[in-house]
What we know:
four-stranded mixed sheet; alpha+beta
Amino acid sequence: xxxxxKLSDYVSRYQIDLNHYSSQFTRMKKERWYYIKAxxxxxxxxxxxxxPDEAPQQKLLNKxxxxxxxxxxxxxxxxxxxFLEKDDFRSLDDSLQKKRQEYLNSVFESQITWxxxxxxxxxxxxxxxxxxxxxxxxxxxxxxxxFLFYEPIFYLKNAEIEFEILLISPTEILCxxxxxxxxxxxxxxxxxxxxxxxxxxxxxxx
Length: 206
């Protein structure tokens, strides 16, 4: 998971100490996953210990009810005693994959929080970033040795400069643009600061 160090023009705690907070965030991710997985494993083990195929009391009752005397009692109903309440163990039936997805969603929200606030200041965050599928994909799928700048705004003297996506790796800086085309679209960069999309033997500006 990449480090989201800059989001729009929001204040970011990474701007205070990049090395410190990147290390702290990595440690926080590992610890959070460790405890989530440990809790899940503990719940699974407890379920295996206390959930036999059939409770001994129920087995005895069933055997007793097979006696011929009970054949004449047609209205008899067996009320099964609840052996394990559904709410006894939180998320007991959740798979580890579901737990992992919950973990990723939680870390993604933390990434946005860290990239839009410092210890003493909080930006007026656009909540739409939490639903941004591209932002989420970049944050989750890219390795953690990358620094992600998403729609950053920089100021050069008095000029405001907007970028789309910047990725900084240990060896290179990548400037990315998201092009929303069709399955067979081919894009070509134009010298006039726009893209040309080729699709179905036609071309159009993008």
